[in-house]
Amino acid sequence: MKRKLFVLKLVGVAVLVTLALIVGFFVYFNLPGPAPSDQVALGVTFSQRYARDLGVDWKQAYTAILDDLGARKLRIPIYWDIVEASKGTYDFSDTDWMLDEAAKRGAEVILVVGQREPRWPECHIPDWVKQEGNDAYREARLTDFVGTSVMRYRDHTALTVWQVENEPFVTFFGECPPLSRDFFDSEISYVKALDPSHPILITDSGEFSTWTAAVARGDIMGTTMYRKVYNPDRGYITYPIGPNFYRLKAQVLKLFMGKGNFIVAELQAEPWAKGWVADASVEEQYQTMNPDLLREYVDYARRVGFSEAYLWGAEWWYWLKEAKGQPAVWDTARELFRAKN
Predict the structure, then answer these.
(1) What Cα–Cα distance (Å) separates residue 261 from each residue in 126, 225, 331, 333?
(2) Using CA atoms, how far apart are residues 169 and 203, in angstroms rounded to an integer?
(3) Domain-by-domain residue ranges, the chain?
(4) Within 10 A of 30 (CB to CB), how many other CB atoms are there?
(5) Which of 74, 176, 156, 163 is nearest to 112 (CA)?
(6) N or C: which end of the chain has fewer CB atoms below 10 A?
(7) Given this structure, which CATH class describes domain 31-340?
(8) pLDDT tens-place string over residues 84-117
(9) Integer Cα distance of 268 and 284 in angstroms
(10) What are phi and psi of 223, to 5 degrees?
(11) What is the pTM of this model?
């Protein structure tokens, strides 16, 4: 009987300690965190594909981001299905133009290479590759594309960092082939071999990953950072985590892995709508992104304190201003960029 009571007490203590730890971590994660850091530089991810899908002139949007907003840090995908729409025929003219325009203004560019790159459907594989239906063929052709891209831009004055694939470990999202970690590792090694002078960025989910795989492979680890999203079953939800959630993960990885240079590669700065964003009313869009939320999320990223934060949604700001006559988000972004950059 005494033994049973002892075991029950032991189990009870263990349960209480576990609950206390859970509550403690929850409270810690939701603390405001440190004061916002003025050392966090702001940038944008720019997708010519997304701007075009929204129906705006993507070149005008791009130059407005540089000249009106004053952005000087850019993350730009080199889309495989655009550059090599036909087998063996490369058209880098759009990427050339974007890099040259950035260089004219002294802007710095992260170039994204691979098959998985920013914007839906996440993987941008040419139709002529898909028609083969063969993983070995796809990987061989992808290697050629990545190598050609690196060789073309490795000496460009605007280039600062190579990003290899985009959130490769987020396999639950997007229309993509299964991830081959061996092939992904070979991609990274190939880029490093062709261009040892520029660091490699690997990105991962901020909310659903430990980041260990990304940190182990890259020189820089880039996290996503979303605050308010739409869930078909639960409606609009705000992630119940504060800046300390990201700070603690980074500190733990630095301690146990002995490395870790962290940036925010994708900071939510556009709506998360029920469907295609352009079909939603402005009122619905404003539920998950508006001028006040933009300021709040930039403040949040600055409390996390990573060196850079690339905002996700500049094309939408431009579309909202030009197509909908709603310049408030764009104007707020301009204030934020010109105040700190």
Answers:
(1) 33, 16, 31, 26
(2) 9
(3) 31-340
(4) 14
(5) 163
(6) N
(7) alpha beta
(8) 999 999 999 999 999 999 999 999 999 999 999 9
(9) 16
(10) -100, 150
(11) 0.91
